[in-house]
Design a protein that fits this description.
Length: 128
């Protein structure tokens, strides 16, 4: 599964990152060009990102927030949802720096998650 590994510095320094909710070229590369696999991965990711974001909102302690942010960051990087990846990375840094996360920060991440989920719904409906 080395294909799924994401080098954080590479993501940070790559100014050509797609601003679309999901980088379809990245996703296609991760799925070796198999559109059926892409759709299955997107279905799984949709459920995963929804669950982790809900858990993040409910987390009352550092460990719970850190675990959910890390999961969101990794899962979103794998499918090419780089805006979500970057927002989760920023929140993770703030949390590690012992800065409390604000409602606004969590809401920003939530909006990005919903945008990705809407894009997934569009992609999946195109395939039907």
């Amino acid at each position: 599964m080395a294909q799924w590994a994401v080098n954080e510095n590479e993501l940070e320094n790559n100014e050509a990152l797609s601003k679309r909710p999901i980088d379809r070229a990245h996703l296609a590369k991760q799925c070796l060009g198999d559109p059926n696999l892409e759709r299955e991965i997107l279905r799984l990711f949709d459920t995963t990102i929804k669950n982790y974001y809900e858990r993040l909102r409910l987390a009352a302690d550092y460990d719970g927030m850190a675990m959910n942010l890390h999961a969101i960051k990794g899962a979103s990087a794998g499918v090419g949802a780089f805006e979500v990846t970057e927002l989760a990375r920023q929140l993770e840094r703030d949390l590690q720096g012992m800065r409390p996360l604000t409602t606004e920060q969590l809401d920003d991440l939530g909006m990005a998650v919903e945008e990705v989920r809407a894009t997934i719904a569009d992609i999946l409906s195109e395939a039907e």
